[in-house]
Amino acid sequence: MRTDQPQTIYLKDYQAPEYLIEETRLRFELHDDQTLVHAELRLQRNPTRGAGLPPLVLHGEELELLAVALDDQTLAAGDYQVEAGSLTLQPQGEAFVLKTSVRIHPESNTALEGLYVSGTMFCTQCEAEGFRKITYYLDRPDVMSVFTTTVEADRGKYPILLSNGNPVASGDAEGGRHWATWEDPFPKPAYLFALVAGDLRSVEDSYRTGSGRDVTLRIYVEPENIGKLQHAMDSLKKSMRWDEEVYGREYDLDIFMIVAVNDFNMGAMENKGLNIFNSSAVLASPRTATDAAHQRVEAIVAHEYFHNWSGNRVTCRDWFQLSLKEGFTVFRDAGFSSDMNSPTVKRIEDVAFLRTNQFAEDAGPMAHPVRPDHFIEISNFYTLTVYEKGAEVVRMLHTLLGPEGFRKGTDLYFERHDGQAVTCDDFIRALEDANGADFSQFKRWYSQSGTPRLAVSEQYDAAARTYRLTFRQSCPPTPGQPTKEPFVIPVQLGLLDGQGRDLPLRLEGESAAQGSDRVLSVTQAEQTFTFVDVPEQPLPSLLRGFSAPVKLSFPYSREQLTFLMQHDSDGFNRWDAGQQLAVQVLQGMIAGEPLDTRLVEALRSVAADDSLDPAMVAEMLSLPSEAYLVELAEQADPGAIHGARRQARRAIAESLRDVLWQRYRSAREASRATPYQASADHIARRSLQNAALGYLMLLEEPEARDAALEQFEDADNMTERLAALSALVNSGFEQEKAEVLARFFEEFKADPLVMDTWLSVQASSPLPGGLARVQALMQNPVFILKNPNKVRALIGAFANANLVNFHAEDGSGYRFLADQIITLNRLNPQIASRLLTPLTRWKKYGPARQALMRAELERILASGELSSDVYEVVSKSLA
Ligand code: 0A1
Ligand code: ZN
Fold first, then answer.
1. What is the distance of C-alpha 744 from the center of its chain?
2. 5 CA distance to ligand 2 middle (Å)
3. pLDDT of 382-429, one tens digit each?
4. Torsions phi, psi for 182 (to 5 deg)
5. Quick one: DSSP state of residue 389?
6. CA distance linking residue 76 with residue 52, whole number of Å
7. pLDDT (tens digit per residue) in 476-495
8. I want to staple 413 with a disulfide (CB 3.0 to 4.6 A). Which of 20, 52, 405, 430 is the partner?
9. Using CA positions, which residue lies closest to atom 13 of ligand 1?
10. Ligand number, closest to the Cα atom of 131
């Protein structure tokens, strides 16, 4: 906990380290009531920092210093200073060996940062600044060292002892103990350090790299989960192959390990050779995990594996550069998922997520550039802006360079910077140098926060056969950035003729048409492009594939949107036209208009279209989410948004009843006829089946209820069962609802991940009485406040996915959330800080709710000693 004023850290103050660490030798003695950490560091004055020997200042937090020696001379108490976050001493030469011994208490570490205990095992989480809770060190990513780690523990309780790199020695120790030594030959920053000790089981496989080396692959879990690893192992092998094929990147050690732990603050961590995963991001079986969960496992396994190059071999100079590894790696994992599944559906999911959540972040008090220039607590900057918008920025570079130019650029980047800690500028420079490109204006995407607006207008001249598109870009003010300079915005587009075909595209000054789908670079505040030889008034299809993370507006009529829904050659834009139409109609309903039946008719033709991928049909049938409608509103009225959407969904269900039943029955028939498979076509079929069931259940008819019950009872997989459960939970069939919830609980109460979904389904139900349900569930023994997955599943789902109940007019939802944050602030600051997000959005709501939300933020601020994590978000939200 913070006792002094929290300090802001600025990018402009960056200085290279005064000392470097050539070699790190660690010895851990793990016990039930304490852990001793002995460190031997071979240090050297950083030659780039000039002459003289300044004091050595090591990071260290919550460490009990037992001994310190410099070149084997034990230091006396007066020879060094221990302060809250540091150990300072005076070196006597350019190169020296520092030995320290400290005592730490992983057994009582509830923050889950540094070394901690999860279930029956010890594990670590060191990114970003957790290593300083393990030993005194230069805990910054530009200090890279080779590590040798010895772990000693009780043999019976901890038969498996792991760390980074290769196992080099092991043996017995006194008192029933044993030890193992691991050596990692690749220099790495301390944030990539990992240690695991436990009674674990593993599955093993092997992978032959393109150059013919065999790599052992091992995934470790607690014994009860051994049957849920096949999907992660398959995903790992596919990722390894894909990175060789698409980026030319091979794995570099002889062994690659993943360990699943139940208590983890994030999804997973890319520690060199020893990835540590939240069990929710590894474990999957048809019986216990949905299709979405299977796809999440595939994506996160890939993400962490891809970090071996984009993050580990080439790492970040400082934490302001976080998007260097995260934006790039998210872009890489999206490419992988796209290749393994339906590219259009993957893009739709990513864009819907970005527009709903990252755009909201960019419009709120925590808005920051992809490369932030200051922070109080770095843990608060593992954000959607750094990750998802960062990935969009890399995607734009890929669009501008084309796949081959981009690959030349990444090849140069990896070759030039292998083994280094670098910046986003180095990444851009490699792309520029490999292609002779100039991205100086483009780099504003890294420094300017906020979501740009792009307003487009058209002018057709029939006599001259010219068509002009005028683009006007602007970007709203964000904290610390009242004005912005124009961005480089790649706009992929096509022009449709009256039959819906793409017209050839020839710009003024060009000698011939250059295809019928192309990318224009909008670089000025206002810019006009003139197409020539245009035989008729066209309909523009703009920002295809969502080629830039902007809010585009064009004055489409509802007929034009319906036309694009049916004819656009770009699948993403067909979906997006439907979303824009639905947004217009729903916003009309929120303002009191009746439902425009053109939306219903457009969805009828989508639902009946057998030629469309069923996953696309499911996506197109889903109305924009409540959260997205909130994001689009100037001032959101939760009740009106929920009511309009529900009314529209009911009307669609009534009107499309027959075709929905037909699609439901044929999909459910197929599901019954074949055992579960997580293949793209089966996933697509189930998503349409479940979308149809969701609509049909709104009719509250016994026929739908029986279908849901049958699906719940008979299905052989969680995807179908959970959809049925959720449909019943959100229905008025009280008795059936209680029965299926109880049955589901009985069947799965020993499986924490399934219990997470059981909690979430109830926490997000919009039916009245939501808060009371959540409070009751907090008393259920399956709920554990110290477990982040449980907090997310219950409290997080209530605050983020239950619009009407969380925003209850009496402020009870806000008060409840603030109470939980105040408790969690002491237990786990990172989780407490993340839970604040919905309260930071107070400006979105009307005056009464604003006042209630602000009052809760103020109550948190006054509640006592705040962690730097919570302090930063609360104080910025109130500023
Ligand atoms: N680098 C990981 C994410 C991560 C970040 C911080 C953590 O603890 C505070 C844990 C994981 C990734 O991108 O997957
Ligand atoms: Zn990552």
1. 29
2. 30
3. 999 999 999 999 999 999 999 999 999 999 999 999 999 999 999 999
4. -120, 145
5. I
6. 24
7. 999 999 999 999 999 999 99
8. 430
9. 326
10. 1
The residue whose CA has the least distance to atom 1 of ligand 1 is: 269
Nearest CA to ligand 1 atom 7: 127
- The DSSP result for 675-741, as a single string, is ----SHHHHHHHHHHHHHHHHHHTT--HHHHHHHHHHHHH-SSHHHHHHHHHHHHTSS-HHHHHHHH
Give, as one character, the DSSP assignment of residue 187.
Answer: E
Q: Parallel, antiparallel, or unpaired: how do β-strands 64-70 and 73-74 relate?
A: antiparallel
Ligand 1 atom nearest the C-alpha of 125 is 8
Element (H, E) at 36: strand 35-45
Q: What is the pLDDT of residue 376?
A: 98
Mutating to test ligand 1, I would choose from 192, 269, 328 the residue with most ligand atoms within 8 A of its C-beta, which is: 269
**Over 60: is that where the pLDDT of 327 sits?**
yes
Query: For 358, which DSSP code?
Result: I
How confident is the model at residue 5, as a pLDDT? 75
The yes-or-no verdict on residue 181 having pLDDT over 70 is yes
- CA 15 to each of CA 11, 138, 317, 421: distance values in angstroms, whole numbers, following the listed order: 9, 13, 10, 13
* Type of residue found at 817: L
Ligand positioned closest to the Cα atom of 307: 2
**Rounded to an integer, what distance in angstroms lies between the CA atom of residue 734 and that of residue 231?**
37
- Is the pLDDT at 875 greater than 80? The verdict is yes
**Ligand 1 pocket, CB under 6 A:** 125, 127, 265-270, 303-304, 326, 379, 382, 830
Residue corresponding to tokens 């005076």 = 90
* Ramachandran quadrant class, 183 (left: phi over 0; alpha: psi -120 to 50; beta: rest): beta
Of how many residues is the chain composed?
Answer: 879
Mean pLDDT of 719-725: 98
Q: Which of 656, 537, 670 is nearest to 604 (CA)?
A: 656
> Does an H or E element contain 230, and which?
helix 230-247
> Given a cut of 60, is residue 503 above it in pLDDT?
yes
Distance from the alpha carbon of residue 269 to the mean position of ligand 1, in angstroms = 5
Q: Specify the DSSP class assigned to residue 507.
A: B
> Average pLDDT over the chain, rounded to whole?
98
Cα–Cα distance measured from residue 106 to residue 219, given in angstroms and rounded to the nearest whole number? 23
Element (H, E) at 47: none
Pocket mutation for ligand 1, best pick of 126, 127, 278 (most atoms within 8 Å of C-beta)? 127
In this prediction, residues 184-196 reach a mean pLDDT of 99
The answer to whether residues 260 and 688 touch, using CB atoms and an 8 Å cutoff, is no
272 C-alpha vs ligand 2 centroid, how far in Å? Answer: 13
Which ligand is located closest to the Cα atom of residue 275?
1
Strand locations in 573-684 (E): none
Beta bridge partners of 257: 218, 274
* Token digits of residue 680: 């793209």
- What percent of the chain shows pLDDT beyond 90? 99
Catalytic residue flag (residue 304): yes
Give residue 399's region: left, alpha or beta (phi > 0; psi -120 to 50): alpha
Of the ligands numbered here, which is closest to the C-alpha atom of 300? 1
| In contact, 202 and 243? CB cutoff 8 Å | no
Tokens linked to 90: 């005076």
Measuring from atom 8 of ligand 1, which residue has the nearest CA?
127
Distance CA 631, CA 590 (A): 14
**pLDDT tens, residue by residue, 817-862:** 999 999 999 999 999 999 999 999 999 999 999 999 999 999 999 9
Predicted pLDDT of residue 4: 63
* Nearest atom, ligand 1, residue 264 CA: 10
Which one is catalytic: 29, 304, 349, 856?
304
Q: What are phi and psi of 667, to 5 degrees?
A: -70, -45
Rounded CA-CA distance 61/68 in Å is: 16
Residue 424, token pair as written in the block: 């986003």
CA of 388 to the centre of ligand 2 (A): 11
> Residue 290 is encoded by which pair of tokens?
């949905």
Structure confidence at residue 348 (pLDDT): 98
